[in-house]
């Protein structure tokens, strides 16, 4: 088997660290997560984490920054595919949903951070969040100026989308418990796949914004 170049080996190590860290931070929070346990799951020693990433604070920022940076990049890329603002709203919602759904640990991790008031978020992470919000702001502002979308506070729309999707993703186990107690009486499907839920989120948001 050929030996991977040093750069590739380093990238693989960082990916392993990321995967272990996001799981531990989402399950135990910032305070509860331990570097030695993360290193053990990643198959390395603590010194490797300090070498490749840094201390626990830097590791946490790397995890959040990497997730939010990916979301921001994909939102920016995907909304370019349509000039129609209502379609771009749908694309925005579905892109957010797809990326939240791609990592089961992201939603509980963000809910922990929201509950703490963003106590552990660095300025660089906040800038990634602003990139996502900025994309939505531009869609809403252009639609309003064209007379096709109603004037609204973009922060309210942003919170409806992000909050709804994060809560839906994080609440899977809770929905299962509710369903086991009374799904027959409710006569509704409590376990809609994330992509189908995103379709309904997108339709509702677009309909509410349409003039």
What's the overall average pLDDT, rounded?
89
One letter per element, helices H and strands E, the order comes to: HHHHHHHHHH
Write the CATH homologous superfamily of the largest domain: Tetracycline Repressor, domain 2
Give the N-to-C terminal Cα separation. 61 Å
Integer-rounded radius of gyration = 20 Å
Tally of DSSP β-strands: 0
- The tally of domains stands at 2
General shape: globular
Structure classification: mainly alpha
Strand residue content: under 5%
Q: Major β-sheet, in short?
A: none
Percent helix, as a range, is over 70%
CATH architecture of the largest domain: Orthogonal Bundle
Instruction: Provide a count of the helices.
Output: 10
Low-confidence stretches: 1-9
Secondary structure blueprint with pairings:
Elements lengths: L5 H27 L2 H8 L3 H7 L3 H23 L6 H18 L3 H10 L7 H23 L8 H17 L1 H15 L7 H16 L2
Helix pairs in contact: 1-2, 1-4, 1-6, 4-5, 4-7, 5-7, 5-8, 5-10, 6-8, 8-10
Give a description of the structure.
The structure is a single chain. The protein is an all-alpha fold and 211 residues long. It folds into two domains: 54 residues, Orthogonal Bundle (Arc Repressor Mutant, subunit A); 152 residues, Tetracycline Repressor, domain 2 (Orthogonal Bundle). 78% of the residues lie in helices and 0% in strands. It has ten helices and no strands. The relative contact order is 0.11.
How would you sum up this structure in a few lines?
With 211 residues, this protein is mostly helical. 78% of the residues lie in helices and 0% in strands.
Task: Name its key features.
2 domains; Tetracycline Repressor, domain 2; 211 residues; disordered N terminus; Arc Repressor Mutant, subunit A; mainly alpha
């Amino acid at each position: 088997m050929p030996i991977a170049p040093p750069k590739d080996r380093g990238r693989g190590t960082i990916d392993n660290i990321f995967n272990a860290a996001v799981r531990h931070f989402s399950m135990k929070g910032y305070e509860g997560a331990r570097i030695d346990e993360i290193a053990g799951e990643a198959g390395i020693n603590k010194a490797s984490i300090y070498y490749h990433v840094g201390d626990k604070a830097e590791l946490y920022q790397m995890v959040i920054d990497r997730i939010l940076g990916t979301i921001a990049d994909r939102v920016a890329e995907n909304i370019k595919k349509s000039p129609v603002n209502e379609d771009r709203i749908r694309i925005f919602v579905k892109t957010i949903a797809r990326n939240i759904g791609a990592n089961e640990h992201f939603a509980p991790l963000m809910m922990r951070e929201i509950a703490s008031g963003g106590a552990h978020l660095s300025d660089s992470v906040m800038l990634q969040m602003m990139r996502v919000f900025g994309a939505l702001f531009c869609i809403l502002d252009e639609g309003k100026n064209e007379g096709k979308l109603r004037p609204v506070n973009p922060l309210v729309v942003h919170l409806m989308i992000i909050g709804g999707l994060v809560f839906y993703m994080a609440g899977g186990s809770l929905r299962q418990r509710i369903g086991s107690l009374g799904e027959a009486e409710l006569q509704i499907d409590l376990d809609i796949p994330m992509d189908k839920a995103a379709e309904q989120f997108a339709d509702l948001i677009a309909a509410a914004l349409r003039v």
